Amino acid sequence: MPEEQKKIPKWILIVSGLFAFMELGVSLLLFFTPQSVADKIDLNAKGVDFLIYMWATRQFALGFIFAFATIKKSIPMLTLAYIFFLVMFVGDLIVGVLQKDNSLIFSALVMCVIASTIIFFINKNKIK
Fold this sequence. Notes:
By secondary structure, this protein is mostly helical. It has 2 domains: about 10-75; about 75-128. The protein is about 75% helix and about 0% strand. The protein contains 4 helices and no strands. The chain has helices spanning about 10-30, 50-70, 75-100, 100-125. Helix 1 (about 10-30) runs antiparallel to helix 2 (about 50-70) and helix 2 packs antiparallel against helix 3. The longest helix has 26 residues, at about 100-125. The chain is globular, with a radius of gyration of 16 Å.
């Protein structure tokens, strides 16, 4: 095993695996039962199904990236995955503020802190 792979703490791999599982699960829910995830949206409105499928695809891609990076135990891949995660949740934070949705604001802030923390620890261990 390359030296670089030995430096990723096991807790980061566990959290990354959980994020992969969670993102893949959300993707499947969006594809098969969108009303369980998007309860405030009129799913019969024109064009909404397209947006739901695009959202599901985004979630699937993120889950796949997290799963692949976790299995490979790759510091650069995990760093990029968490940067994508951070950017996505910064966007959710902005949407939450614009929509005045406190639960979205809070969850986006929590996820931004988690992603930032993991990026810090991945790169801290990379430097050693």
